[in-house]
Amino acid sequence: MTPSHFAELLDFLPDVLAWVKDRQSRYLWVNRAFLIQYSLDHPGGKEFAAIENILGKTDYDLSPPFLADQFRLDDEQVLAGHRIVNRLERVGGSQGPMVWNITDKIPVVDAKGAIIGTAGMTRPAGPVGRLEATAPGFGPALAHMRAHFHHEITNRDLASISNMSLRAFERQFRAAFHLTPQDFCEGFGCALRVAR
User: Which helix (H) or strand (E) element contains residue 3?
Assistant: First the structure.
């Protein structure tokens, strides 16, 4: 399979956004789902309707600054030779809703092994069961958050449900999701107020 066949194959995945960037974090290639998503997320989406209007741009041209900052930090980590695998994160366009995705990013190397860019893909995280697969041990706490979002829930409650001490729960939750339980629930748009 040639690289062009592989790229063509990624165009058939409607829920997966895939891309390749150079060392300056400029987009060199995006799949069809990426192009469609960014066309829908931006006012006057026709401006992004052609791939030529995304190529050469950076995340600062396509995403809100707070997301672009995170994407740039990721690029720096990947350009240093690290992989990002099965990371749960919030993504979304400037006008579109924030959603939870699972993201993978890897270095792109040339024939001599030098890192010349990054490649990645992101896909919807889906229901609690898929989030649990990304961060094992938090399934009961995530299910409890969803089932009781209309009541106040404390971190102590969630720690108990997860069979962890309060400190361990807070530390491990933040390590798994890169957010506090409060911020996590806010990302889902629920009314949960998590108190200590």
Answer: helix 3-10
At 188, give phi and psi (nearest 5°). -85, -5
DSSP bridge partners of 126: none
3-state secondary structure of 102: strand
Edge-to-edge order in the sheet of strand 84-91? 27-30, 17-22, 115-124, 99-109, 84-91
Query: Per the structure block, which two tokens stand in for 95?
Result: 């006008």
DSSP 95: S
The greatest distance separating any two alpha carbons of the chain, rounded to the nearest whole angstrom, comes to 57
Pairing of strands 27-30, 84-91: unpaired
Helices (H), 49-165: 59-62, 65-79, 128-134, 139-147, 155-161
Q: What's the gap between Cα 62 and its chain centre?
A: 15
The predicted-structure confidence for 144-168, as pLDDT tens digits, reads as follows 876 776 677 888 989 999 999 999 9
Gap between the Cα atoms of 24 and 118, Å rounded: 10
Ramachandran sector of residue 195 (left: φ over 0; alpha: ψ -120 to 50; beta: rest): beta
pLDDT digits (tens, 9 = 90+) for 119-132: 999 988 765 555 65
pTM above threshold 0.70: no
> Which of 116, 85, 18 is closest to 9 using CA atoms?
18
